[in-house]
Amino acid sequence: MSVLETRAYAKLNLSLDVLDRRSDGYHEMRMVMQTVTLSDALRLETGTGKPLSMRSSLGFLPADERNLAAAAALRLCAETGADCGGLSIELDKSIPVCAGLAGGSADAAAVLRGLNRLLGLGLPPERLEAIGARVGSDVPYCVRGGTALAEGRGEVLTTLPALPDCHVVLCKPAFSVPTPELFARLDGCRIRRRPDTAGLLAALAAGDLAGVARRMYNVFEDVLPERRGAEVQRIKNALVQQGALGASMSGTGSTVFGLFDREEAARRAYELLQESYRDTFLARSLEKMV
């Protein structure tokens, strides 16, 4: 038997823009994505002599191919002919679910990277990203990690200059909004405000953390149900009042995050928000996958 322990890192949307609805039913996206150190832990074991097994620290998560981690393993085996018999996946969740942080996609990406090493497949990252795209739209980015522009459904990636090292406070209020509902709301209205993606890319190229933070925006914030939108705004305001250079919602939410250039300010914000929100985390930006 062979064993590998690895981590799956959460992603943030520094910006999120929805450009159009495509003929295949998906939406054309333009997003700047960033990996942070908040992570799940995975243990992969091969050669157990048993069928594929999946176990999670959260009992309500599916333990079969409906879980993206298991789906990724099955897809890798199907596309490469690798022998994944007797594979066991143990998942210890820290990234909150249904939070806009790509937790499931990050788990799938970690399985792809991990099995590539464990089985000695030698697949290049581009191949892993292509396999991941058949598992979920965010999986290719989670395979690559770092700072990247994601277009198409999210699978067309361009690596960007790294976000300057910073502290990140993440706060998920006690609600989630189904992704299809938010897309339907967006389709039914005129988008009033869009992120300054070009300005954000220029700020990244210049290594200007404050410039990046000022330009962060997510179009889904405009179509949240009123009470939930107000709560997201309250968290954003609290982060900025505690010294965040900027704050935004990630993905389809409901996690809100702020970027800080000073650790003491980030820690104060974390401690303040943790009093009201259980799912509050202190993290760092991550330049590359480790």
From TrEMBL:
Residues 67-146 form the GHMP kinase N-terminal domain. Its EC number is 2.7.1.148. Residues 201-278 form the GHMP kinase C-terminal domain. Pfam families: GHMP_kinases_C (PF08544), GHMP_kinases_N (PF00288). It is an enzyme of class 2 (transferase). Keywords: ATP-binding, Isoprene biosynthesis, Kinase, Nucleotide-binding, Transferase. ATP binds at P96, V97, C98, A99, G100, L101, A102, G103, G104, S105, A106. GO terms for molecular function: 4-(cytidine 5'-diphospho)-2-C-methyl-D-erythritol kinase activity; ATP binding. Pathway: Isoprenoid biosynthesis; isopentenyl diphosphate biosynthesis via DXP pathway; isopentenyl diphosphate from 1-deoxy-D-xylulose 5-phosphate: step 3/6. One of its GO terms (biological process) is isopentenyl diphosphate biosynthetic process, methylerythritol 4-phosphate pathway. The keyword Nucleotide-binding applies. The keyword Transferase applies. It catalyses: 4-CDP-2-C-methyl-D-erythritol + ATP = 4-CDP-2-C-methyl-D-erythritol 2-phosphate + ADP + H(+). InterPro entries: GHMP_kinase_C_dom, GHMP_kinase_C_sf, GHMP_kinase_N_dom, IspE, Ribosomal_Su5_D2-typ_SF, Ribsml_uS5_D2-typ_fold_subgr. The active site is at K11, D138. Catalyzes the phosphorylation of the position 2 hydroxy group of 4-diphosphocytidyl-2C-methyl-D-erythritol. NCBIfam families: ispE. Belongs to the GHMP kinase family. IspE subfamily. This is 4-diphosphocytidyl-2-C-methyl-D-erythritol kinase. It comes from Flavonifractor plautii 1_3_50AFAA. The gene is ispE.
